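COMPLEX REQUEST
Ligand: acetyl coenzyme *A
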Amino acid sequence: MKDYELFSRETKAFIYGSQTAAVQRMLDFDYMCRKDSPSVVAMITPERGGFEKFFWGTKEIRIPRLTSISEASEQFPSADVMVNFASQRSAYEVTVEALNTNTIRTIAVIAEGIPERLERKLGELGKKLGKWIIGPATVGGVKAGAFKIGNAAGTMENIRMAKLYRPGSVGFVSVSGGLSNEAYNIIARNTDGLNEGIAIGGDAFPGSSLLDHLLRYEANPDIKMLVCLGELGGTAEYEIADALKDGRLTKPLVAWVTGTCAKVLPGQVQFGHAGAKADAANETADAKNQALREAGAIVPNSFDDYHLRIKETYEKLVADGVITPAEDFEPPSIPIDYNQAVAEKLVRRPTHFVSTICDESGEVHNYCGVPIDEVIEKNYGIGGVIGLLWFKKDIPVYARGFMEMVLQIIADHGPAVSGAHNTIVAARAGKDLISSLVSGLLTIGPRFGGAVNGAAEHFLYGLRNKLDPRQFVATMKGKNIRVQGIGHKLHTVENPDKRVEILKDYAKEHFKKTELLDYALSVEAVTTQKKNNLILNVDGCIGVLLVDLLHELDFSDKEIDEMISAGLFNALFVLGRSIGLMGHYFDQKRLAQPLYRHPLDDILYDVPDRPEKVG
Ligand code: ACO
Ligand code: LMR
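STATUS: Structure written out below.
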């Protein structure tokens, strides 16, 4: 790059601070300028390393997060720009470190509120080291078609409208970022566009002055006219007037100093920027406009005519053959972020997930439409929650009570049953809670705990087909199918299962009728004639009573059959028994039980002396 250039299409930069939005805007600008690669090569974020994802067009790319300026400089020696987003508390120290880093030549300091004595020190250090500081208290600037500092130039729409994606013939400098954005549009509408625009920042001691940048533009052969927008306060514009008079500036300069309204306001007025206060008569906007006018700048009578003077100056330069208007092109469009497009209702897409039982997308999540706080306030209980999440119904209190009773009586049945056995063995093998729980749950099936579903299905089959109990038992026997819900390894007619008694009593007290239970009991009367342990077991009792309950809650046969095929009936056993299995896990952990190995004397070893040879 030439001495007068700070930025080019090859510029690589660091971003100091976690300003991901600013980085994305810089990458979108690069992309709109049809550059081959992003200008940001790394973020410098001392709080953490790693990387950050950004869009390059519609593709995602990763940009490293490095934790120090020195590390960044070593990894990316070609990066000579740093946009310093450090806050006013640390911006000075960070800028000094960057200035003292050999590979870094230009630093934009965004922070406002840096003490003036430190600002003056930064300016002196920058000049001493032959480096450029833009700011403090600035949004930065833009080299049209090449490089954009941080958030400078506003939205991508503003950038497109101001044609900043390609270089024009105008060099612009201002104090204010906001006024710069306005000026970029004025320049785009009245000339072939901006070549470079810098906002030096609104503090009293900027790291580089309006004149510093105008002199760069004067030396840049691609820039044919100069435009400046100053503001009341300070004397920077007199430096420009001097340069016009002594010939350091020869290109046509259209200038305006804002703040002329101050004269109609009572007393001295401090405008937005720290430096925007006319402490002396020569610091007023009128005085400075007049000085520029007298020095040969093109100064309108008011800001209203600013665009006219720019237009006239440009057109004359074109007529004189000094400017060949830059060719325009339609830049690549920048996809808008999906979330923004959704917010603006610009896009829609089919969903890949459906939930009709719980919605957490709002302020308070709800179960089938009942907000969670209401679930608690109205004492839905676990039975009510099962009603909402499993059956999608607000079920009555007696139905909630039935669910909760089932969960309580089915929670455990001792360490000897297959589920508890597996959980205990897994726990003693050192497995974690979930693995041990799952190993127990995996034994639930057609013989243990998993007969609730089958019982509902089998007894409904008999009832719907009007099979009398003997016919039903004989039919199932003939199909070589064990009646699910019948039989127990422990309980018999003489040693009934208390849980089954509790369930039957509850149903008799609360249910309107127990048609399927009555049918199952009639089947039990047949099976127990064969063997006294072929009783209606707890799985069977739960299964038939749940069918009776759902019928009372107006669920159709079709809905019940769908629940059976989905295994919903077994779910009550799984949910309840998980309490007991986890209990056994904790029990074994508390007891610090060693690895379990089955006793040899409890195994029949009937192994052949030698295997039969085949083939
Ligand atoms: N329907 C018809 N006949 C049966 C049934 C049944 N449900 N259960 C056992 N029998 C018969 C067997 O066919 C066998 O007859 P056979 O001697 O003519 O061959 C005889 O009874 C003994 O069978 P076993 O399997 O030795 O009996 P066991 O007492 O071990 O079976 C078990 C208990 C596993 C529960 C058995 O009754 C069964 O599989 N029932 C169906 C599944 C079920 O309901 N399980 C839930 C149990 S409760 C719970 O897990 C919480
Ligand atoms: C249980 O609830 O686990 C039992 O009914 C099964 C069994 O074998 O005891």
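REMARKS: The pocket of (2S)-2-hydroxybutanedioic acid (ligand 2) is lined by residues 413, 417, 448-449, 489-490, 538 (CB under 6 Å). The two ends are 83 Å apart (CA to CA).
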